[in-house]
Amino acid sequence: MMKRRLSSPHATNTRVSSRGRHYLLLVDADLISLAENDDPEAFATLYDRHNRAAYSVAYRVMGKRQTAEDLVQEVFLKVWRAAGSYRAERGSVRTWILSLVRNRGIDQLRSTASRRRTQERIEASAPRSQPSETFAETWRNSRRDQIRQALKALPAEQSKILELSYFCGYTHVEIAGFLNIPLGTVKGRLRLGLEKMRGSLLWEAA
Length: 206
Fold this sequence. Notes:
Elements: H1 16-19, H2 21-24, H3 28-36, H4 40-62, H5 65-81, H6 93-125, H7 133-140, H8 144-153, H9 156-167, H10 172-179, H11 183-205
């Protein structure tokens, strides 16, 4: 496999003297055949010849310079590893490379959009956290200090979730994201914390 990092699409072509003129005189079909046989100079010539056009397509699809450059790097590495997949009857080498760029870019955008929609559906389906009747009634009776003391008596992982849920109004999904823990863990700790607080508050009221 080729070890060196491909240069930026904006880099000036400085390989002419080191590569030799004969590679520059070859047509793309010959170069792709040589690249298929692991000829790095043939591949480098193809890259120099087509990377700017590939970047233009990538930028139009992705809309961001760094993302477009990363896409070009990814596609040309695919060209290097799978040069044998090129079929002349389907179009020129240039057309093939630009098609790879466009199709891969569209796939990345679709994947990102799909992940975003999935996350939005998860968040939309998660109900907003609502205080239990016991907790709400205690709050209305101005027992803030007792509640704070009861929270302090809880394990830190339980009191943190109760504070985020009831004092800050975050959903279970949001809390799971903030604390980087599973949603089921959030619900379990919330339930245990509420049970302990109920017992503590009822004991104090007795």
